[in-house]
Amino acid sequence: MRAAVIGLGLIGASLAKALKNCGYEIYGYDISEEVCRRAAEEGLISEKAEKEKLSECQLLFIALYPGDVLEFLSANAVYISRGALAVDCAGVKRAVCAGAEKIARENGFIFIGGHPMAGREHSGYAFSDGGLFKGASMLLTPPEDMDGGIIEKLKELFISLGFKQVVLTTPEKHDRIIAYTSQLAHIVSSAYIKSPTALEQSGFSAGSFKDMTRVARLNERMWTELFMDNRDNLIEEIEILQRHLEEYRAALLGGEQARLHSLLKEGRLLKEKSDSFN
Question: Does 146 lie in the same domain as 34?
Answer without folding.
Answer: yes
